Task: inverse folding
């Protein structure tokens, strides 16, 4: 009986088929693995891009911060330079102001001395000269109680000739010997309290005693017993005013007295002819 053909493939073909199916299965697995790897790479790439963006933003922020810090440093340096210039300008202004004040004070002192000198010789009567001396003492020196003394003919006493703020019973001659006023008259050197408050002076302890001279001859003294309450110390111009009074007050008074005795007549021309000798 003849053999019926089989519906199964030959064994070689079955093996080939199995190998092919197996290869297809392996290829499918590899494809799936490749797809999974690709997706993971895509995710990783996305993460890296995000990280790169963040890093770039951070770098840009750092650069902006550095630029801002550099700008702040430049502004700080400019501020310090401006402050230094401002301090220099303030020092220069302070020095200028100080010098201006000094010049102004010197000018004021010179003006006071000019006014005082002009006052002494603005009158040719003894009463007028005495009034000018009192004005200088009161208005320029700031004296409140004072007295002008001239020496007696026997040179034993200092006789008061003009005063202010002194009671009548206190206006008495003062002995030359053994008194403070007499010692200033005898020595020809002024006695001025430089380190004490002149407004606190008394009749026994005057604030200032200045000798009055005609040429080199002492003829009297001016005693400033006390100054006004607001005059608490003598300043440089006061010493110059005392020196001016000491050198010119008595001379102006003597000149006015001689002019008055001459009945206000000027000397004749012959009195001036030999002045050049």
Result:
């Amino acid at each position: 009986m003849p053999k019926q053909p089989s519906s199964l493939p030959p064994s070689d073909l079955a093996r080939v088929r199995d190998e092919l199916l197996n290869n297809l299965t392996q290829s499918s697995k590899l494809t799936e693995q490749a797809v999974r790897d690709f997706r993971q790479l895509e995710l990783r790439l996305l993460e890296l891009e995000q990280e790169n963006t963040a890093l770039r933003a951070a770098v840009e922020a750092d650069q902006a911060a550095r630029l801002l810090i550099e700008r702040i440093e430049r502004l700080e340096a400019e501020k310090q330079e401006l402050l230094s210039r401002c301090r220099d300008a303030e020092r220069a202004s302070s020095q200028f102001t100080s010098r201006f004040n000094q010049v102004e004070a010197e000018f004021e002192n010179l003006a006071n001395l000019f006014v005082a000198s002009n006052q002494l010789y603005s009158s040719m009567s003894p009463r007028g000269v005495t009034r000018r001396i009192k004005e200088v003492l009161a208005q320029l020196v700031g004296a409140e109680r004072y007295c002008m003394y001239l020496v007696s003919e026997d040179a034993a006493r200092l006789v008061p000739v003009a005063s202010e703020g002194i009671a009548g019973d206190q206006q008495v001659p003062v002995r030359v010997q053994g008194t403070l006023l007499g010692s200033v008259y005898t020595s020809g050197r002024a006695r001025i309290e430089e380190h004490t408050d002149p407004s606190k002076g008394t009749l026994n302890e005057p604030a200032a005693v200045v000798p009055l001279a005609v040429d080199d001859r002492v003829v009297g003294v001016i005693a400033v017993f006390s100054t006004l309450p607001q005059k608490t110390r003598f300043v440089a111009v006061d010493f110059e005013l005392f020196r001016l009074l000491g050198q010119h007050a008595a001379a102006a008074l003597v000149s006015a007295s001689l002019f008055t005795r001459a009945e206000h007549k000027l000397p004749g021309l012959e009195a001036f002819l030999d002045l050049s000798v």
About this structure: The chain has two domains: 12-120, 124-261.
